[in-house]
């Protein structure tokens, strides 16, 4: 490959590096600025612990500020550097987008239900309380709605960023396989600041990233991974009562770990356990079978044209 070819490969790679730096900095600054404003105006007097933030209504405006900042960064990079509309990164609502989203949601719910059955059936988690019996129903419904909206924002933001801008730019430069693994590693690394994060949780999140990235590669759209990501988090925390990436998110049930960290995931939750990794591998296998039997992968026409011409912008 000539020097021009290597330069062509590194252009989208450097865009990704710059994008990730601004993405992280501006989302954190936006959330911090809103938090300081709430404290300065007296709207907020005590900052909730990070481990319990997902169960507080405060999470919606805080994460919403980060979401707006991330959308601004992604839109700017897409328009000014990639010269593409934001919708081109897998968000166009045409075709079977609703079926994709529903299929992803169903897969995520199924995988987390299997984790729940195995963890409780083996005695590795213990049911401590049923929240809807201990709290007024309207409070439980309100908390469940807050959690659902929060995890909708999480799924949309992380899929647009990691399976949208990052994976798709890297794929144009290095191909699908390298892009899939690299974007999954980046996705896992961005969770290093979560409570309970460590080597094993991050490695487990790489597998989760491979599963979510495969959802994009199978459908060439973000709707399936968005649905999968949403259901995985929502059923893991609010419905079944597990920690979600180190944060307490139980609404309907309250579980306590009763087994070793290897099978419970410890404070990070079951997605960092052997059971969670097994579920993610099963999800990968199902997506592969799906791609082979029902929805053969289709390379984007634009990518085929650019690669055929030997140019990557």
Description:
This protein is mainly alpha-helical. The chain has one domain. The protein is built from 11 helices and 2 strands; from the N terminus they run H-H-H-E-H-H-H-H-H-E-H-H-H. It has helices at 3-40, 59-80, 97-121, 131-134, 137-174, 176-189, 199-219, 223-239, 261-264, 274-293, 301-308; strands at 125-130, 253-257. The chain has a two-stranded antiparallel sheet. The protein is globular, with a radius of gyration of 20 Å. The two termini are 16 Å apart. 42% of the residues are buried.
Range of strand content: under 5%
**Biggest beta sheet attributes:** 2 strands, antiparallel
Rounded mean pLDDT is 87
Over the alpha carbons, how many angstroms does the gyration radius reach? 20 Å
Distance between the amino and carboxyl termini? 16 Å
């Amino acid at each position: 490959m000539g020097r021009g070819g290597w330069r062509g490969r590194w252009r989208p790679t450097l865009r990704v590096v710059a994008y990730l730096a601004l993405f992280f900095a501006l989302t954190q600054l936006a959330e911090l600025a809103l938090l300081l404003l709430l404290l300065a105006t007296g709207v907020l007097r005590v900052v909730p612990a990070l481990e319990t933030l997902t169960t507080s209504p405060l999470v919606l405006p805080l994460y919403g500020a980060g979401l707006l900042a991330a959308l601004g960064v992604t839109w700017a990079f897409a328009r000014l550097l990639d010269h593409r509309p934001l919708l081109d990164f897998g968000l166009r609502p045409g075709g079977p987008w609703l079926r994709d989203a529903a299929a992803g949601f169903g897969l995520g719910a199924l995988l987390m239900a299997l984790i729940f059955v195995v963890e409780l059936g083996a005695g590795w988690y213990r049911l401590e309380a049923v929240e809807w019996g201990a709290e007024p129903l309207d409070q439980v419904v309100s908390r469940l709605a807050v959690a659902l909206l929060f995890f909708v924002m999480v799924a949309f933001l992380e899929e647009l960023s990691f399976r949208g801008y990052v994976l798709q730019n890297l794929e144009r430069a290095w191909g699908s396989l390298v892009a899939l693994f690299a974007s999954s590693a980046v996705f896992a690394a961005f969770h290093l600041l979560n409570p309970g994060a460590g080597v094993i949780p991050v490695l487990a999140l790489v597998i989760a990233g491979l599963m979510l990235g495969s959802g994009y590669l199978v459908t060439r759209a973000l709707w399936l991974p968005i649905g999968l990501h949403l259901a995985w988090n929502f059923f893991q925390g609010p419905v079944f009562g597990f920690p979600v990436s180190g944060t307490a998110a139980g609404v309907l049930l309250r579980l306590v770990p009763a087994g070793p960290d290897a099978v419970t995931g410890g404070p990070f939750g079951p997605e960092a356990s052997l059971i969670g990794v097994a579920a993610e591998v099963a999800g990968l296998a199902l997506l592969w079978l799906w791609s082979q039997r029902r929805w053969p992968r289709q390379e984007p026409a634009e990518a085929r044209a650019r690669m055929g011409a030997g140019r990557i912008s």
